[in-house]
# Entry
Amino acid sequence: MTNRQRIAIARIISDMIKADNIIEEREIIDMNSLMEKYDIQSKHMSESRGLRFSEAVNELMELGGQERTELFDDIRSLSLSDKACVQKEAMLLLALKFCLVERDAYTVRLSPTSRVKPRLIACPTSESALSDPYIVYVESRYDQERNREIAEHFRLMCTSARLYGVNFIYIPELVKEFMSMREDYVTSVIRYMAPNLDDQEIERIYTRLSQMTTESFFHDVLYDRLNVRMEPDVAPSLLINIGTSVVPYCVSDGPVQYYTEFLCLPLYADTLTVVDNVLQSYCSYVSLQYTPVTNQTAGHFRYFGFYKALFDFLIAPPPVLPDLVFLGPNILTSRYEVLFRYSTNYEKTLQLTPQAYDTYYQCACGGIATDSFAHLKTVINRLRGKVEQTIADVTCREKYKPERVVGRYKLTLDRSKIFKRRYLDPHHHTYKDLPVKI
# Structure
């Protein structure tokens, strides 16, 4: 087991202990036992504070099948140290089940060479507490059969989810709900939530809401505005809100960042079956009863759970994303350089070895197969660390780090933000920055 994997396990252990906001003596005893079993030192616990839960889970996917199953059993036992598994703990276990233990069983094959597996994704958020859990259907292109079956079974899925205190969200139905309210009522609420916006911007938000589809929600909200780490073209999936990850946690120095994390579960069967499987798994973990979500009065603007998140997303300013420019070798230092260029003409430069530069460029252009060469993962991890240090001020910096997506390491940054510099004279005095090509 690598140090990175020990750090990941330390993060998951910490999240599970903190999930109910009470740290009992029995939990500490069980934690110490797991630390001894997995050879987790104090330094690993310290370093885990800068790791998100989703990053920890992704790191542990490299473990063998038996190791992942044993780890899951250990974490589940830890969740019951205090004889109760609360909602947050159950959501974390749900993520671990689908991503570590039964990932292959829920893989969707898109083509002979392309497969989509359950995975965790994250987006920056201002939320510091778990809101009502919700499940959202997402698609990047309209799928007629999926939408037909969801429309047919929508009420059944909603009712089933509410029995467990979970909201099932289908964007077309949500839009219908808002459009049944008076326009002046909705715009007044938007004005109340964002008093700094002028009338024109409020009207634009209302128009976006009234015309929102599942596809536009994915592209305009999730992908463009929130910069979630997803492919621009994904299979129909469920996004399951598993909670908020705080980075760093348990420290008082430095800025604290919050990330909303989702289990992205491709629809491996009909939607009703998948939703039922998720709810049954959740029910098998949680040991405390929750009051079903009953605040469903028609015509009332709800400001909780997904409803609150959606409006927070719509009224938030778009994230600041610098251009990524591959400069090539510096003729003075012989180091290869990558430029992060902000819209304010502020720039940061990353210096790399020729090998790291070439790897980064391939990840930006279209990706590298994860089995291309044996030491690829080491190069990728070093690249990720250097990018993190260089643009620590960028909220959506994960877009600039190589990610493992469908068998390839690649950047999830929009291609319109990536350039390669072409020098027009031998002394590099004049140049053009050209968009990258696949």
The longest strand covers residues 237-247. Residues 144-162 form the longest helix (19 residues).
